[in-house]
Specification:
By secondary structure, this protein is of the alpha+beta class. The protein folds into two domains: 101 residues, Orthogonal Bundle (Peroxidase, domain 1), CATH 1.10.520; 70 residues, Glutaredoxin. Strands 2-1-3-4 form a four-stranded mixed β-sheet. It is elongated and about 60 Å long.
Length: 177
């Protein structure tokens, strides 16, 4: 676990709590994603690191970029981050918030790496099997990588299910060594 994740987690939980009280998880997720992208921009990141630029100026840059899209509680949250010199954590806060939202909404984002694109029927069957296994609504992304040779590798949260031909060959090779 990275130091940034450790620092960002309490802020993500606080943001989640505020958004949940307002019944606006989707709105906060969108706004955090936007400000996370803004702060990830190299120019803005340089401004945040510049000791000559005040936290108020940095906060103004971020809130101006949002326009009228943010309510007082969200801008208040950003102010707290600015006061605590944690605006640079916004990308990590956004990521952790999205994870908390997915957990609360019983959704799971899954990446399926396969040698060829899954046929619609295959994708549907895999999605249904994963939904049963994880007891979650599945959001599936299919990534094509010819190096897996056949089968698929499923990345679901912090779990990896390797059903690829490449994985089987590697296990066989390790068993023979």
């Amino acid at each position: 676990m990275s130091n940034l994740t450790t620092l960002a987690r309490p802020y993500a939980k606080a943001a989640f709590s505020l958004a949940n009280e307002q019944s606006d998880l989707a709105g906060w997720d969108r706004l955090l994603g936007t400000v996370g992208a803004i702060v990830s921009d190299e120019t803005v990141a340089d401004l945040l690191r510049n000791p000559e630029v005040s936290r108020e100026q940095c906060l103004a840059i971020i809130t101006d970029a949002l326009g009228e899209g943010a309510d007082k509680s969200f801008t208040g949250f950003l102010s707290v981050l600015g006061e605590n010199k944690r605006l640079s954590l916004l990308p990590e806060i956004s990521s952790l918030f999205s994870e908390l939202r997915q957990e609360a909404e019983k959704r799971l984002r899954v990446r399926v790496v396969s040698a060829i694109e899954l046929e619609p029927r295959q994708a549907q069957q895999l999605e249904q099997a994963l939904a049963r296994r994880f007891d979650r609504e599945i959001e599936m992304e299919n990534i094509i990588d010819a190096s897996v040779l056949g089968g698929a590798i499923v990345y679901a949260g912090d779990q990896v299910i390797d059903g690829s031909l490449l994985g089987r060959l590697e296990k066989l090779q390790a068993g023979l060594a």
